[in-house]
């Protein structure tokens, strides 16, 4: 059973789990915004083909909301990394909070063990 100290210590047993998490986050960070923008473009295309001004206005609003959501999803991981870096930077260098970042970097997808 994993406990918090194993995660903070970047145990070798936890690295494969962190690698999978990083891969999934990377796919979500790229895939979800693309999917949202494509869905919005399809909705807008359908509205334009119908030649209904009210439907075009609604689809335009939907596209803008989806684009904002896409940007938020894309930058969510970056924002969390920045916040965690600030928290880690404010702690003592020898504390356990500094080890999460080293573990996260060590678990980059494609990096050889």
Question: In short, what is this structure?
Answer:
With 113 residues, this protein is mostly helical.
Can you characterise this structure?
With 113 residues, the protein is mainly α. Helix content is 77%, strand content 0%. It is built from 4 helices and no strands. The chain has helices at 4-8, 15-50, 53-90, 99-106. Helix 2 runs antiparallel to helix 3 (53-90). The radius of gyration is 20 Å and the shape is elongated. The two termini are 23 Å apart. The model has no long low-confidence stretch (mean pLDDT 78).
Give structural attributes.
mainly alpha, 113 residues
Structural class: mainly alpha
Average per-residue pLDDT, rounded, comes to: 78
Specify the biggest β-sheet.
none
* N-to-C SSE string, H for helix and E for strand: HHHH
Supply the number of helical segments: 4
Between the first and last Cα atoms, what is the distance in angstroms? 23 Å
The tally of strands reads 0
**Overall form:** elongated
Proportion of beta-strand residues: under 5%
Percent of residues in helices comes to: over 70%
C-alpha Rg (nearest Å): 20 Å
Low-confidence stretches: none
């Amino acid at each position: 059973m994993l406990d918090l100290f194993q995660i903070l210590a970047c145990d070798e047993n936890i690295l494969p789990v962190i690698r999978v998490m990083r891969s999934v986050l990377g796919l979500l960070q790229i895939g979800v915004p693309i999917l949202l923008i494509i869905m919005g473009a399809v909705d807008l295309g359908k509205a334009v083909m119908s030649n209904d001004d009210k439907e075009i206005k609604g689809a335009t609003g939907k596209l803008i909301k989806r684009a904002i959501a896409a940007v938020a999803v894309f930058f969510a991981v970056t924002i969390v990394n920045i916040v965690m870096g600030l928290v880690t930077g404010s702690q003592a260098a020898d504390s356990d909070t500094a080890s999460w970042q080293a573990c996260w970097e060590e678990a980059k997808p494609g990096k050889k063990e």
